[in-house]
Design goal:
The chain has 301 residues and is an alpha+beta fold. The chain is built from four helices and eleven strands, in the order H-E-E-E-E-E-H-E-E-E-E-H-E-H-E. Strands 3-4-5-9-8-7-6 form a seven-stranded antiparallel sheet, covered by helices on one side. A four-stranded antiparallel sheet has the order 10-2-1-11. It starts with a helix and ends with a strand.
């Protein structure tokens, strides 16, 4: 009986242990499942957090990436500097002054083979007129070394050409002497030198518009009037041509008058000399008829 009882008790203990083991096992499973669930949840939260952080960092990294520089490294953009100066004023282009040339007329003398141009408002005198009182300076005096010269035409400069000055008159004359040789054409009768007769007055050679002339300047004057005269000689067509220029002025002590620019006056007359053209002399029959009918052509240069 005692042994049976011991055996019975021995059989009950294993069953109780099995029950206890199964309960503890179920508790462990429950705890393990809860832990696993908690780990899973935490992992999911951690993944969400890390994913958001990675996206934010990638976005910030993307925004911080600098744009690539141009392919040409040598060209650097200039820094922008704010200008505090007022805008520059561009000056207007200056208007070009148009110089209008005075109307010109042309005098042609076929009998003597000479022509020239002169301002249309100047006074032309031909025939016997130059032998009279010309421009208040008296008749034109030729300066040939021998007699035989004839004045064929003269241009008188109006007194109003230089207002407010001591200018009174001026003229440009053309004379011809067919009895002189080329050597004699380069000589002048006056002014007479104050030195011995063996010393002729100084004669210079000048070239105007490509033509060479022998030139002599005569200075003369008095208490009330001073004149200035220049003579130019040129040998052409077997004759000696003389082109004279005269200038007259009044007493420079008169109030309100200033001295005229002599270089300007003679410069304008030398422009007439520069326009001179020489042509072969016409045949005697034509020349005789043309001598009394010189040709004057008016127009603009």
């Amino acid at each position: 009986m005692a042994n049976f009882t011991e055996l019975k008790l021995g059989n009950n203990r294993p069953q109780d242990s099995k029950k206890n083991n199964s309960k503890s096992l179920s508790k462990e499973k429950t705890l393990f499942g809860a832990g696993l669930l908690a780990v899973t949840v935490m992992s999911g939260v951690f993944l969400l957090i890390t994913n958001g952080c990675s996206k934010g960092s990638s976005r910030s990294a993307a925004t911080n990436i600098e744009q690539p520089s141009p392919m040409n490294p040598s060209v650097n953009p200039a820094p922008i500097v704010a200008s505090t100066q007022p805008p520059a004023v561009v000056p207007k282009p200056a208007k070009k002054r148009v110089q209008h040339r005075a109307p010109m007329s042309t005098y042609t003398d076929p009998a003597n083979g000479v022509s020239f141009k002169y301002p249309k408002n100047y006074i032309l005198k031909t025939g016997d007129q130059p032998q009279l009182d010309l421009a208040g300076l008296g008749p034109i005096k030729t300066d040939f070394v021998r007699p035989g010269g004839v004045t064929v035409a003269a241009i008188e400069v109006p007194r109003s050409s230089y207002p407010g000055t001591d200018f009174t008159s001026a003229y440009f004359g053309v004379s011809v002497n067919s009895s002189l040789s080329q050597e004699q054409c380069e000589q002048f009768a006056f002014p007479k030198s104050e030195r011995p007769e063996s010393e002729p007055p100084a004669v210079s050679k000048v070239k105007i518009a490509g033509n060479e002339y022998a030139m002599l300047e005569d200075l003369g004057g008095s208490d009330k009037q001073e004149s200035n005269t220049k003579y130019f000689h040129r040998f052409e067509n077997g004759a000696c041509y003389e082109f004279s220029m005269g200038l007259g002025t009044v007493d420079d002590n008169l109030a309100g008058l200033k001295p005229v620019n002599r270089s300007l006056v003679f410069g304008r007359m030398e422009q007439m000399l520069a326009s001179v053209k020489m042509q072969p002399v016409a045949v005697p029959e034509v020349a005789k008829d043309a001598a009394s009918h010189p040709i004057v052509e008016g127009g603009k240069e």
